[in-house]
Design brief:
Length: about 220
Amino acid sequence: MRILVADDERLLADTVAEGLRRLAMAVDVAYDGDGALERALVHRYDVAVLDRDMPGRTGDDVCRSLLESGSGTRVLLLTAAAGIRDRVEGLGLGADDYLTKPFAFAELAARVQALARRSAPALQPVLEQAGVVLDVARHSAWRDGRLLDLTPKEFAVLHVLLRAEGRVVSAEELLEQGWDEHADPFTNAVRVAVMTLRRKLGDPPVIETVARAGYRLGS
């Protein structure tokens, strides 16, 4: 899943982004509303975490623009204001959820994951194919009952392949969904992640390479 985090408190934004990346999410960061909206017009995000109180273009403004664009991005608003009126006002803008600062990262992560599931309601929290089982909520994966020790990128690649349900997934699509905007489109990061994932999945091989097209998970 791909997440946008926008907050003018740079340390907070970077800390949240790093925590979400450790949960195998691709995260882009903006430090103002203009940067957040610019990224949202270029990339498709499952969830946008927006500080309401950014100077200039606020999180409220970005939330309205996302709603008007019909992007389908779920919005979690952050604010230091804890009053009921503030929460009601934020949700009235079209936001999907609201969290007051200071907050526990575990709660923010749980809310982001819940919103991401709502952005793709057809997806099941547990995916299974060819003896491979992936539990999104628990961030765990198994093959034939054997627990797999996967890096966040390997987990993200496996998640995308399972979601594809046998469809061929291009390297570009894997890069878009599993890495952030700073990923070099000419890097071999996808190939390396697929290679190490194959090794950890073991025999018989289940990830097929389709020449000049990409990868798919076999039956």
